[in-house]
Inverse folding.
């Protein structure tokens, strides 16, 4: 087990290294530079600026310096767009905001989605099943960038119950709409996934065998059928979590929460190399960690799995 | 209840079970009556689709959602049909238990043996905690699981098939039920394991006075186990009687047919209407197929030290034999003995790791793809599952025609069709089926399609890999006859792989017994059954149940200690030479000696030293 975790963490670093090199190269070969705006400064100024940020060096030296900074000092370099701020500082202030409502959305979606999906399968062809099917379809076809303005229209403009954006120190009123907007689609996929997995689990021979032993239905669901459902769900959770991270970027922008997403979009527009790369790599780190945690959970849940 | 000696434990009156399907109503069980007395074993015999399982699934309240049952099912004097699940749960698992065909999928995969056993005890009895663990262990020991204590904390996938079925039985017996329903309990098991499981059930029946309902298709198993027998067909009982009545004086045509079609290991040429033509060696090409020291190894990842290590698993470990034109070689052995791998290696479907296969005097191994494809015309294979080995989107005529399109593209479509029609007729498929799809055909018909496809190029060698194992006995007999007829017509050579020793005896001229990738015995078909020399062959033959109650019950079985060991175990291949293990010669490879002309036996210790 310990060996497996070490192995996975080591691989995580390799993935980060490769990602680092790829993003660096991609961003430098993209046309434009941080200093090519409408009023392009004279060439000698650009040269000075590039020297200041180390962009005049050959690319492999740049990448090397950049990686050394990240892995030794957790230093993602300076922000070009926001003078005086460095990328790690921006992550430190914006990440907690995005992460707070992303994780709340994730937990809500997983909890309610699983419960509803399982109930729908257990009472197949009942009103709860039909409700779950409708929700599963509706949530899936409604993208969050449509849902968010509808929510604002209803709760802010008409009912005047909730603020239309901002963070306000994480007040619950500011959280409600971002969380709904972010969790609906995810919940819908989880409902569909768990419903299908539970229906499949209930048709397995060991369920009939458990019934033949006189085990009550609720125990059959809980002890004999729930785990396979969890395993199916777990396999999808990693990619779902990635969806929450990217989804939060859109929500950040829409609700002006001051989260990472806002900076991401702005940085991409301003060709702020270091900020874009820093945020990309940081998100990648989060995803790698989450993936490792999910695989460990998988191993713990399924006695058949032995990782090498 | 216990003093009423002859009272029925279970009584079924006029039971009807039907299913609503998209294709309309299907009547699976039609007016069935039965009763089972205390301490009695009732055999319910029938082929697939006879409704024998559904009768008892209904009794256990396990009917599928689209099923509907009418009639009466009484457990003692309580009507249990239509009972609420809550009420039924007080009876099933406690007084009435069930074991299933496939012990792997019938155990909850993510729960340890102990958890699953104590769950039953906690539900139905007041036994808890350590006492429950103790009782579970007691039962595991009673069903003679090796190393019982360790098994408690293992998961089903860590146990062998036989052990899993023992766990199922132990779990079913925990509350000492009055009735045990066994639905094909040994069908998925190897014959030696089957023998042990049947012995165990018989013992439990006598010691605990448990009534057993044994649902099976195997007349041999019934002959061994059952006091009374009911024969079922198409959802109705056709005949009922004591074991002696059914076997020695069957009244119904269907019962007679079932008994006739059942191959017997003690009587060759019985199941089929014709006899296997004895093989005449004169004038035969000796260079037909020569297999010389073929080995197939698979790399298995084993965790050892810091990094996983690849260890070779020897699936086929040095097998040599020759096959002559027009001859059938039977290959028998238990699961994992490498019989399928060997056949695939001969056909180069799996390239052998070492050794040579020579075909008509030229080597087959080491050819490139193109050269090999040319030879494939003469080398065909028929698989076990007829439905799975046919493309569901192709009509059967297209499936049969495909080899012609591959090997004889110059042939006109019209000629191909004519040839397909001719071949279909030859294997007994009606002409009007030409445009049908595999799912519209029965298992036996699909297997005929598989055979027609293999035969259309008029090959010289056909491998039948468990080709009749998935079929009902009556169909099985017909397919064997068909293969014998085709052999004579086309002078075909067959490699006939089967786990069923009685079937192999019907069709093969010579028989090879494999054990963990090595030949332990090879001899003429009659010779090997009349004079088996190797302990493993003796054990296998003695484990096959004979469909004759008097003979079967009087027979003495040879029992060797332990289960089939894992091929990864270095001492496994010396299982029959413990003297070499004792002498610490672990690398010793038993020789294959010719004890009589044509009768080869692997070196082994004396049988007396091996049996417990």
């Amino acid at each position: 087990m310990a060996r497996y975790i070490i192995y996975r963490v080591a691989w995580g670093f390799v993935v980060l290294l490769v990602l680092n090199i790829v993003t660096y190269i991609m961003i430098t070969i993209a046309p434009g530079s941080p200093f090519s705006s409408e009023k392009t400064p004279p060439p000698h100024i650009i040269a000075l600026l590039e020297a200041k940020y180390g962009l005049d060096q050959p690319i492999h030296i740049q990448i090397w310096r950049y990686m050394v900074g990240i892995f030794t000092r957790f230093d993602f370099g300076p922000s070009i767009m926001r003078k005086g701020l460095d990328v790690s500082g921006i992550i430190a202030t914006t990440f907690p905001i995005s992460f707070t409502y992303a994780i709340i959305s994730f937990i809500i979606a997983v909890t309610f989605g699983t419960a509803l999906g399982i109930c729908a399968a257990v009472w197949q062809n009942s009103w709860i099943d039909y409700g779950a099917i409708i929700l599963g379809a509706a949530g899936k076809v409604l993208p969050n960038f449509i849902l968010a303005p509808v929510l604002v229209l209803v709760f802010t403009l008409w009912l005047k119950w909730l603020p239309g954006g901002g963070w306000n120190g994480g007040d619950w009123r500011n959280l409600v709409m971002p969380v709904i907007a972010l969790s609906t689609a995810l919940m819908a996929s989880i409902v569909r996934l768990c419903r299908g997995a539970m229906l499949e689990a209930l048709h397995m021979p060991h369920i009939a065998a458990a019934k033949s032993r006189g085990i009550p239905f609720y125990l059959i669901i809980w002890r004999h059928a729930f785990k396979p459902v969890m395993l199916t769900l777990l396999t999808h959770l990693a990619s779902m979590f990635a969806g929450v991270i990217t989804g939060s970027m859109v929500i950040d922008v829409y609700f002006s929460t001051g989260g990472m997403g806002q900076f991401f979009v702005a940085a991409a527009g301003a060709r702020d190399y270091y900020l874009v790369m820093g945020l990309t790599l940081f998100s990648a780190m989060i995803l790698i960690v989450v993936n490792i945690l999910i695989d460990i959970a998988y191993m713990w849940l399924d006695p058949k799995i032995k990782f090498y | 209840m216990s003093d009423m000696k002859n009272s029925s434990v279970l009584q079924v009156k006029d039971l009807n079970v039907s299913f609503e399907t998209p294709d309309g109503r299907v009547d699976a069980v039609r007016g069935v009556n039965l009763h089972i007395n205390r301490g009695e074993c009732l055999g319910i015999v029938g082929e697939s689709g006879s409704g024998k399982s559904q009768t008892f699934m209904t009794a256990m309240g396990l009917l599928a959602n689209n099923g509907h049952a009418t009639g009466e099912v009484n457990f003692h004097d309580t009507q249990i049909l239509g009972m609420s699940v809550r009420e039924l749960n007080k009876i099933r698992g406690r007084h009435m238990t069930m074991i299933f065909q496939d012990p792997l999928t019938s155990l909850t995969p993510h729960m340890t043996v102990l958890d699953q056993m104590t769950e039953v005890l906690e539900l139905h009895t007041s036994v808890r905690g350590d006492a429950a663990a103790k009782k579970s262990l007691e039962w595991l020991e009673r069903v003679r699981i090796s190393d019982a204590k360790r098994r408690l904390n293992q998961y089903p996938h860590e146990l062998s098939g036989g052990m899993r079925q023992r766990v199922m039985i132990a779990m079913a017996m925990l509350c000492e039920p009055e009735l045990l329903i066994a639905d094909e309990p040994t069908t998925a098991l190897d014959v030696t394991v089957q023998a042990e499981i049947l012995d165990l059930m018989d013992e439990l029946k006598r010691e605990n006075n448990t009534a057993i309902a044994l649902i099976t298709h195997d007349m041999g198993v019934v002959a061994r186990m059952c006091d009374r027998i009911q024969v079922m067909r198409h959802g109705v009982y056709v005949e009922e009687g004591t074991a002696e009545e059914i076997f020695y004086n069957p009244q119904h045509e269907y019962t007679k047919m079932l008994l006739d079609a059942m191959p017997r290991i003690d009587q060759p040429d019985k199941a089929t209407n014709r006899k296997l033509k004895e093989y005449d060696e004169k004038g035969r090409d000796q260079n037909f197929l020569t297999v010389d020291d073929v080995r197939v190894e698979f790399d298995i990842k084993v965790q050892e030290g810091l990094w996983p290590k690849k260890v070779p698993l020897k699936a086929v470990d040095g097998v040599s034999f020759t096959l002559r034109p027009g001859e059938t070689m039977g290959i028998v052995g238990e699961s994992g003995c490498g019989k399928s791998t060997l056949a695939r290696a001969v056909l180069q479907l799996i390239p052998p790791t070492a050794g040579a296969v020579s075909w008509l005097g030229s080597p087959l191994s080491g050819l490139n793809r193109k050269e090999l494809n040319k030879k494939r015309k003469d080398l065909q294979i028929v698989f076990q599952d007829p439905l799975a080995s046919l493309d569901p989107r192709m009509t059967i005529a297209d499936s049969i025609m495909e080899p012609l399109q591959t090997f004889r593209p110059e042939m006109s479509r019209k000629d191909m069709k004519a040839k397909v029609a001719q071949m279909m007729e030859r294997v007994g498929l009606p002409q009007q089926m030409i445009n049908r799809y595999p799912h519209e055909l029965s298992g036996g018909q699909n297997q005929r399609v598989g055979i027609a496809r293999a035969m259309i190029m008029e090959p010289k060698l056909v491998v039948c890999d468990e080709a009749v194992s998935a079929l009902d006995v009556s169909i099985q007999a017909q397919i064997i006859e068909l293969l014998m007829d085709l052999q004579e017509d086309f002078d075909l050579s067959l490699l006939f792989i089967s786990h069923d020793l009685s079937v192999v005896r019907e069709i093969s001229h010579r028989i090879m017994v494999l054990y963990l990738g090595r030949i332990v015995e090879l001899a003429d078909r009659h010779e090997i059954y009349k004079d088996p020399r190797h302990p493993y062959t003796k054990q296998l033959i003695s484990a096959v149940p004979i469909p004759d109650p008097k003979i079967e019950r009087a027979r003495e079985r040879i029992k060797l200690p332990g289960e089939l060991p894992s091929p990864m175990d270095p001492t496994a291949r010396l299982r029959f030479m413990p003297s070499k293990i004792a002498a610490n010669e672990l690398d010793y490879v038993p020789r294959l000696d010719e004890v009589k002309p044509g009768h080869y036996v692997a070196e082994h210790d004396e049988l007396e030293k091996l049996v417990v």
Remarks:
- Chain A has eleven helices and no strands.
- The mean pLDDT of chain A is 86.
- Chain A touches chain B at residues 3, 204-206, 208-217, 219, 223-224, 227-228, 301-304, 306, 308 (CB under 8 Å).
